[in-house]
Design brief:
Distance between the termini: 72 Å
Helix content: 55-70%
Shape: elongated
Subcellular location: Membrane
Number of strands: 0
Radius of gyration: 20 Å
Keywords: Heme, Iron, Membrane, Metal-binding, Transmembrane, Transmembrane helix
Structural class: mainly alpha
Order of helices and strands: HHHH
Organism: Desulfovibrio porci
Number of helices: 4
Number of domains: 1
GO molecular function: metal ion binding
Main location: membrane
Largest sheet: none
């Protein structure tokens, strides 16, 4: 049996930057990173919300941060409990974010 030669790229050296790193990054990595950043923003906005209780812009930013965090969390739940196929993981990000943003805007305009 003849196996064709595989064309491997040479290993990267210390300090070398991969020019294709963004293209090779999976959407799950970006979703994970965005969820962690939103968690930090939630903590900061909660502190601001306690200091400036009736400022609508602080409340709106807090609502957006919680919506982003919750939408990405719902994506993880759908994937972890096999409620969505793993091949649809890339499409789940815009769908969950879109549905979360729609729900947040409906809630915002219902309150204000």
């Amino acid at each position: 049996m003849n196996t064709p030669e595989l064309d491997y790229r040479k290993p990267m050296q210390w300090g070398e930057i991969d020019p294709y790193r963004r293209g090779r990054a999976h959407v799950g990595m970006w979703a994970w990173l965005l969820q962690r950043v939103s968690a930090v923003f939630i903590v900061l906005l909660l502190i601001l919300h306690l200091c400036f209780t009736y400022k609508p812009y602080v409340q709106f930013l807090l609502l957006l941060a919680v919506t982003l965090h919750a939408s990405l969390g719902i994506r993880v739940i759908l994937l972890d409990f096999n409620l969505a196929k793993i091949c649809s993981a890339r499409r789940l990000v815009p769908w969950t974010l879109g549905l979360g943003l729609t729900a947040a805007l409906i809630a915002w305009f219902a309150i204000y």
